[in-house]
Design goal:
This protein is of the alpha/beta class. Helix content is 42%, strand content 23%.
């Protein structure tokens, strides 16, 4: 299995933790008010990516993803420097997908042209809502007008692959708010949309002080169904639980995660899967700045996956995709029929109408998607 993995593409993820401000719903590892550390972090991240490059020598990097945080907040000069280092020290596929996450207020047409010239060919804007009152509730630092301007600037800068993130079931949410947000993004030229239900995380500001007017679980489910229907009507096909794309614009980097291909995470807290080993980097800034050129010192949570672990991940990650999992691929990879391992679970959820099977693939039904966490938990051996 290890040798087979060496022919797979490699996804490269670079974590940029800096944000202008912390959003009320966010519990990701991000830092606000620490702009004075940007140069030191950029240098440490460059040392890190150079040091681990030999581990990727057997791979062809098919996707590069700058995630955060707010990567665009790091600034054009630092980001271009990092991308040049990636291109120098890794084998990059000729048509690699190179994504930059950005907030609308952090970009201009000039900086977007700089990113595009450096090789970034996919831009992902965090929009969330087209209503300024909602954006203020969420703690977002941009306005709807700035979001519209960012999409227009990206198109003028030469971006053809543009994604937009939106949130559903927000405080006092309505279908009209979704319609306005979809209109903003679709008219902005988005080829891909990520639509997430708001989840109140304990370590977020919302977790400590929940907002008023949150929809009930049933209302949230209705908003989700409404979103799926209207996104499809506008030409965005659902290919994963929370992701929709026009034909040919599915996010290749995210597919690497769901299809369990190798990926290497660089930067604070970033996770990796190389062969049968999973690990993540330290989330301690001081430790990272000090030891980024010594990867063994900053790797945490190291785990060698067993055959059972791989089977479980094959199922619960694969079922995130609307195409589901292939019975043939399971047989080829693990040397046994999927029914021999998960027969009872499959029978149970097929009977309930939560799992479907067609043309040798097993996938969640529309009803199954609503309770996907419960279904996927059943595949943990």
């Amino acid at each position: 299995m290890t040798m087979a993995r060496q022919t797979h593409p490699l996804g490269l993820y670079l974590h940029i933790p800096f944000c202008r401000s912390k959003c009320a719903y966010c519990d990701f590892y991000s830092l606000s008010g620490q702009e004075d550390r940007m140069d030191a972090y950029t240098a440490a991240l460059e040392r890190h990516l150079i040091e681990v490059a030999p581990q990727a020598a057997q791979h062809l990097v098919d996707t590069v993803y700058f995630g955060g945080g707010t990567p665009s907040y790091l600034g054009e000069k630092r980001l271009v420097k990092l991308l040049k280092a990636v291109k120098k020290h890794y084998r990059i596929a000729p048509h690699a997908e190179i994504t930059l996450e950005a907030n609308p207020e952090t970009v201009t047409e000039e900086t977007l042209r700089g990113f595009r010239a450096a090789g970034v060919n996919r831009i992902s804007f965090g929009v969330q809502s087209a209503r300024d009152t909602q954006l203020r509730t969420l703690g977002r630092p941009h306005t709807a007008k700035q979001a519209r301007a960012a999409f227009a600037a990206a198109r003028r800068a030469g971006f053809e692959n543009i994604s937009g993130d939106i949130m559903l079931a927000l405080p006092h949410y309505t279908q009209a708010e979704f319609d306005e947000t979809l209109e903003l993004i679709a008219e902005g030229g988005a080829t891909h949309i990520s639509a997430y239900l708001l989840k109140i995380e304990p370590d977020s500001a919302f977790g400590r002080h929940p907002p008023e007017g949150l929809p009930s679980p049933d209302e949230a489910a209705d908003f989700y169904l409404y979103a799926v229907e209207h996104l499809e009507h506008h030409g965005y096909r659902q290919y994963e639980i929370s992701n929709y794309a026009r034909k040919g614009f599915e996010c290749r980097h995210n597919l690497i995660y769901w299809q369990r291909k190798d990926y290497l995470g660089l930067g604070l807290g970033a996770a990796s899967l190389l062969g049968m080993e999973r690990f993540s980097n330290t989330a301690d800034m001081q430790e990272y700045l000090k030891n980024s050129s010594a990867p063994e010192k900053i790797r945490k949570n190291r785990e060698l996956l067993t055959r059972e672990d791989e089977m479980a991940e094959f199922m619960f990650l694969g079922l995130r995709m609307t195409q589901g999992v292939s019975k043939k691929e399971f047989q080829e990879y693990f040397g046994t029929a999927i029914e021999n391992i998960y027969g009872e679970v499959l029978k149970k959820y097929k009977k309930q109408g939560l799992l479907l099977e067609e043309s040798g693939r097993i996938f969640l039904s529309r009803e199954g998607i609503h309770v996907s966490n419960a279904v996927m938990a059943e595949f943990l051996l």
